[in-house]
């Protein structure tokens, strides 16, 4: 059980002059690493967990579709620039429904997965009530629950498969449990849960009156969009997703949640102001993006076609050398290998930074020391160089 303010991981004490490896939270570690990398032009980061932003595609779309000439005195915004106050940008909602086979009454737009989860927690969880959240996991999910006053219980997803046992979920549920929160594909490991497992977890949650929230922000990596979202599987499942990870469009702050209309009505009744951070302009652009989704799908598919063989080749070589363990996921852009013989991930990752100008994310930030999280959705050439450094760095660490 966790209480508010519980630090994530066990980072070492800060060093004189500042040390981003002393950061308690992953977000602070990332911020510090970005500052540090600015002073090292040859440094490579392998922790990024999103497709690199398709800036050219986005700029071309904005120039072509959002701003149009006007006879009344210069350019003006196009038809997709509409109010988001009632229930989001209607063009965006319609495009999302067409992509995922949904209907408008089951969908609400938000700023992202974080914004959607905050709405759900504020509306459906009272202080002192319980939320069951996967571990290892993306710790912002637990932190948001703690900030809402919930008691967080860990649902262990054990290595090496990182699956979820519905019977274990059922055993951990209590009459005070309001939510079960999972990521699918799993962050940080990329493991995918099948529909039967999600349905069984939802059924167990329903027996105590709880909802299953599934963060599907990486979902389009592992399924055809027409297959639909997890929310189709049971009336007590809420799906959350955004344009951030697969499309790489974090700048648009555009996400959505999908659920049974009765569930959405409960959330709206208790949080009538909705997600106040939603931008009219950003969601107008997002509507154009989703209406031209094939273009952006081709972008991320080309990136992953280039990078995935590079990751697999290096992972195979490091496994053969006895340096890492763990299969590369079938899809997605995350890999969470165990580093053989390493318990102190802080020392290892600090060593890689200091000796090889290489950044990988310590597994401690996700609840499992001895592992590192790698992202491989950027440039294939840079990935190749970074993984070469990782292989050499792990060999040097073992032989030091």
UniProtKB/TrEMBL annotation:
Pfam families linked to this entry: Aminotran_1_2 (PF00155)
Top-level division of the source organism's lineage: Bacteria
Record key words, sorted: Aminotransferase, Transferase
Molecular function in Gene Ontology: pyridoxal phosphate binding; transaminase activity
Alphabetized Gene3D superfamilies for the sequence: Aspartate Aminotransferase, domain 1, Type I PLP-dependent aspartate aminotransferase-like (Major domain)
Aminotransferase class I/classII large domain: residues covered: 89-390
PANTHER family, alphabetized: AMINOTRANSFERASE FUNCTION, HYPOTHETICAL (EUROFUNG) (PTHR43510)
Protein name stated in the entry: Aspartate/methionine/tyrosine aminotransferase
């Amino acid at each position: 059980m966790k209480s508010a303010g519980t630090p994530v991981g066990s980072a070492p004490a800060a060093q004189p002059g500042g040390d981003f490896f002393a950061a308690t939270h992953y977000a602070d570690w990332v911020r510090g690493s970005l500052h540090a990398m600015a002073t090292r032009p040859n440094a490579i980061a392998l922790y990024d967990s999103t497709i690199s932003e398709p800036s050219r595609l986005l700029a071309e779309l904005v120039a072509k579709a959002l701003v149009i000439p006007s006879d009344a005195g210069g350019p003006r915004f196009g038809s997709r620039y509409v109010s988001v106050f009632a229930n989001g940008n209607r063009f965006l909602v319609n495009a999302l429904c067409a992509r995922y086979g949904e209907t408008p009454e089951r969908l609400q737009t938000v700023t992202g997965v974080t914004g959607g989860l905050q709405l759900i927690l504020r509306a459906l969880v009272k202080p002192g009530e319980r939320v069951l959240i996967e571990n290892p996991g993306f710790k912002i999910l637990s932190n948001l629950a703690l900030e809402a006053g919930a008691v967080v219980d860990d649902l262990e997803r054990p290595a090496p498969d990182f699956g979820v046992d519905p019977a274990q979920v059922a055993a951990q549920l209590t009459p005070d449990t309001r939510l079960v929160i999972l990521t699918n594909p799993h962050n940080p490991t990329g493991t995918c849960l099948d529909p039967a497992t999600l349905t069984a977890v939802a059924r167990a949650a329903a027996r105590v009156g709880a909802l299953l929230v599934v963060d599907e922000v990486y979902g389009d990596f592992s399924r055809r969009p027409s297959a639909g979202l997890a929310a189709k599987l049971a009336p007590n499942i809420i799906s959350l997703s955004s344009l951030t990870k697969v499309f790489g469009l974090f700048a648009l702050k555009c996400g959505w949640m999908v659920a049974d209309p009765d569930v959405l009505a409960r959330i709206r009744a208790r949080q009538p102001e909705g997600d106040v951070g939603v931008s009219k302009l950003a969601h107008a652009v997002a509507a154009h993006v989703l209406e031209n989704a094939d273009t952006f799908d081709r972008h991320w598919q080309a990136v992953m076609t280039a990078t995935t063989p590079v990751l697999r080749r290096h992972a195979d070589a490091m496994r053969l050398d006895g340096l890492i363990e763990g299969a590369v996921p079938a899809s997605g852009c995350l890999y969470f290998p165990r580093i053989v013989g390493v318990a102190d991930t802080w020392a290892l990752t600090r060593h890689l930074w200091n000796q090889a100008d290489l950044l990988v994310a310590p597994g401690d930030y996700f609840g499992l020391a001895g592992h590192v999280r790698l992202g491989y959705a950027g440039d294939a050439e840079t990935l190749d160089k970074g993984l070469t450094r990782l292989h050499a760095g792990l060999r040097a660490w073992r032989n030091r």
